[in-house]
Amino acid sequence: MDGDRLSRGGSDERPSGQRLRPAAEAPQTKYRPPHLRNPQPSNAGGEHQAPPLQRQGVGRSSESGPAPTPQRTSLLPIQRQPLWSPQQNSENRILPVRRPESRAIAGRSINLLVNHFLVKFNPRNTIYHYSLDIRQLVSYGKRPARKLRNTSGLRLILNKLFLDDQARFPANRTAYDGEKNLYSAVSLPTGQFRVELSAEDFSTQTYVVSIKIMNELKLSKLEDYLSGKVPYVPRDILQGMDMVMKENPSRYRISIDRYFYPSSFRAEDDIGSGMAAYRGFQSTLRPTAQGLALCLDCSVMACRKPLPVVEFLKEHIPEFDGAYLNLYLRQRVAHALKGLTVRVTHRRTKQQFTIAGLTGKSTRDLWFDFVDPKGNDPTVKVSLVQYFREKYGKVTVYQDIPCLILGRNNRTNHVPMEFCILTEGQRYRREFLDESRQETMKEKCLARPPERRKTISDMMQDHDGPCGDVTRNFGLQVEKNMTSVEGRIIGPPDLKLGAVDIVRVEDEKRQWNLAENSVVEGKRIDRWALIDFSYLDFPKLRAKDFISNLRNRSKSLGIVMEEPLLCHSTGMCDFSSVSRLEELLRSVVHEGNRKCWNKLQIIICVMAEKHHGYKYLKWVSETRVGVVTQCCLSNHANRGDDQFLGNLCLKINAKLGGSNVELTRRLPHFEEEDHVMFIGADVNHPLSKKSTTPSIAAVVSTVNWPAVNRYAARVSPQDHRTEKILDFGPICRDLVNTYHQLNGIKPKKIVVFRDGVSEGQFDMVLNEELSALKRAVSDDHYQPRITLVVAQKRHKTRLFLENLGDGSATGNVPPGTVVDTKIVHPFEFDFYLCSHYGRIGTSKAVRYCVLWDENSFSSDQLQELIYNLCFTFARSTRPVSLVPPVYYADLVAYRGRLFQEAAKEFQSHSVPASKPHAFDISFYQLHPDLRNIMFFV
């Protein structure tokens, strides 16, 4: 059965500083975290009823002795200094916990290579940060200087300034971000400087470049952070050094969305239709336990080929031949070209123009009023074809097609298509490719580990890679070989299935077989209905065969499934209307209730094809009608494949409250009487241009112990692209109360997994969301111990086998591979865990960062806990790539996005015109019957 389907796709031990361990003493009336039971002088606060959050990992116990100094990678040694104390922190902010002192040892070792490249620097050096402002002087009237925004134009002006005064402005010792930030290895003069550039018409344009010093970045501060002497990361220094590392590729490559791509493509990467796959990379600097490291990963992106516009259209639209365009073909051509940038070939210029549209008339029929610039001749009517022939000596061949309307600086020009060439690096979004080309791009993106490893190594060696003259002139030395690190492989847990108490998972895929086993607890299905939406479409469902096969497969899994109470046949046309779907579902539920005097448990919906009305069905059923639905396609249902039917049964059983698989032994670090609740939280954001569309926050939590495989979910809309979960505290309080209602006791311990936040947002999660959680759930009588872990998927770190024989047949690292040395944070508590079997492409390990820990986990305990949880995902028979609380939160957040899209037509009528950002929360509220079941799997 399918496993993880979430796509988003040396051995040195780093001393991590000191962290206070729990003291053996009786609990106090007011609970204090175990690492703070021997208080030091500090502002302990505590005005509100919940216990105050204290700084973790910043104090030192008196018994711990001097702090070990981590390895350093700078060129000059630094004297050891004592770690900071809480009193030295000027801001009253909580800091992430430090890595436990004991070294993790669980599992067998494995030698790995990581795409981290060590960067050495001289801590005595300084990088000078300047602010730039470039404006054009306008010679006529009293208009002020015009500020420029075009990145390529700004670089051209700055390069001219450097060329005119190379002694004071050494170009190879500066790095420019293309906007307003300039970094230099030497001190530059400040003030205003005039730059004159010659235009294509031989006129001269004058610009004023204003340079102002912003900061002097002392690299010694970065060294202090890497060695653990200061707690706060010097982000301004890392940003400056990161820009230095990007300067060389920015001069030789095309920058697209923080990636760098070459201007040409390989012949085998031509995917047709005027597009090609371009191979580039993204890099970032990371402070790690071995020192500063450059993390570089490769990327593949579909771009339009830099062809003449006519040739591009011939490839992109097979019906286009340069002749007359009918209305349909004209619309396709306009859609393919609008918004693209081009260069013109009829005259010498470096300017780029944006295609605003097509002319209404064909090229041969275009005339305009020509005014002699010298004023000698009267205004005359001139044919566009004649003008290009006489002015530029260009003969227009394609006269029966429209011209391009090119816009620049609020002016429009009409230029024949044949004199325009598409510029390089114009992205073509993969979702707009046809199905075959999407598959081609998928194959190119999902490179096998040996191929990806070689590509990354080659890019590090290339002349247009991150290691150029500018990098060396800043005193940075980059190791071009990947970092060698010793990982460990954690053994899989034993599982419990229905017929077998202990199932040992020992194969390389960590997969268990349901062919001869049943689920742990099959939920009896007495009241269900079938809606066949394929009755009027193709392929049509063979309903009797499907029902029989599904019941037989359910029986083999230990799930008793009776005949459906009713079968309703209709067409896919019902999916196009929310009101028709709601009317249909309510009628089916009403008929089911009439037959059994009880509400339906589930409605199975068979669709002829994937349809955008799927979101309507889920919104209506889960927020308005209050019945669980399970969808599938008729062609899959007709095949009656055991694997497909088994997957369907696992989802249905989980949705109805059954248990598919459980761990035989209790989770590490916890006792059965502990009653632990696991929380997962995520936020789904809309596109930035949809400024009135809300973000969707989702929080899930376990409601059973010790099996921890049943979850309740909550969905909450909030302000556009707001990452902080605004109602995190009230939502968690609601989930804790739900746990209490179902189990008769509140959880003694809570482990929160937060998804989707970057390192720059850790402070928000730690000092705002965690504080809101503690204020909401804690009081004088109830104070659970809380651990907060961030799960990061969107990083660029990749693990490769040093010896291919150590891994699976696909060349990926084995499931359970964990790394917590060298490539991790210098002193904070984080690690990389690859918990799944990589079937295609190169596996990506998830980075888990522990921000707060009142449960005193050791590294081994937390790593094993997360890995074991990955075996409990309801709809898989192998461990998944992401800890289930986060995985489920992703699914719920996406479901909330479907709710938003489905309710959009209703919402547009309910939002007052004076409040464009408002949203009606009632559209997102789950039906009471579904609030505490896993409707989302």
UniProtKB/TrEMBL annotation:
The keyword Repressor applies. One of its GO terms (biological process) is regulatory ncRNA-mediated gene silencing. PROSITE patterns: PAZ (PS50821), PIWI (PS50822). One of its GO terms (cellular component) is ribonucleoprotein complex. Coiled coil: none annotated. Residues 59-92 have a biased composition (Polar residues). GO terms for molecular function: RNA binding. Residues 602-901 form the Piwi domain. Signal peptide: none annotated. Keywords: Repressor, Ribonucleoprotein, RNA-binding, RNA-mediated gene silencing, Translation regulation. Gene3D superfamilies: 3.40.50.2300, paz domain, Ribonuclease H-like superfamily/Ribonuclease H. Residues 1-96 are annotated as: Disordered. CDD domains: PAZ_argonaute_like, Piwi_ago-like. InterPro entries: ArgoL1 (IPR014811), Argonaute_N (IPR032474), PAZ_dom (IPR003100), PAZ_dom_sf (IPR036085), Piwi (IPR003165), Piwi_ago-like (IPR045246), RNaseH-like_sf (IPR012337), RNaseH_sf (IPR036397). Residues 308-424 form the PAZ domain. Residues 1-16 have a biased composition (Basic and acidic residues). Belongs to the argonaute family. Ago subfamily. PANTHER family: EUKARYOTIC TRANSLATION INITIATION FACTOR 2C (PTHR22891). This is Protein argonaute-2. It comes from Salvia divinorum (Maria pastora).
